[in-house]
Fold:
Amino acid sequence: MAPTIKARRRKQHRLEILTTAEQIFARQGYHTTTMETVAEECGWSKGTLYLYFKNKEDLFFSILIEKMEHFSETLLSELKNSEGLEGKIAALIEAQFQFLTENKHFFQLVIAEQGKVMHSSDSGLREKLVTQQQTHVYELSQALKEGMPEDSKIDSSILAGSIVGAVNVHQLNWLMATDSVDLSHIKSQITSLFINGILPHENN
Structure:
């Protein structure tokens, strides 16, 4: 059944709020951002904003959750269209780096604020985010498994988690670094590591 005009308008308004709030959070930080500020920049009353999000914490986590949902959907589609395990691994690593660089300023905020926010969160949003991340890795493992030989001894869930973890470590260093970091080189090295391994192959 097609969504009604009212439902489409509500969805559009919610997206506008999330987009505006993300810009404010990135500019001001979590603790100095208020619902009043978000409402004002959206051109709405604070009461209207509360029809969509119950508080600032809900708004902050909703940005994270919806970003990851959109990224997961796009990435899984790309992996399904990638040929073989090598193609899927390369596509996964490329997409992770692209996603981060496109959202650099917001994820710098997440690093600075998420620990405090998640530590104090009692709304269930923290658990939802953790569950979402676990589901993301599981779905990646299933996509990678489709490209693996049937007799492979590698656990696709371990492979997916290892790739995500390896990329995340270097991306975290990049986000926190005061010096320039060559992401292209890191991306190339990680891709080579997971596709070709470390030890040179002997010629038969």
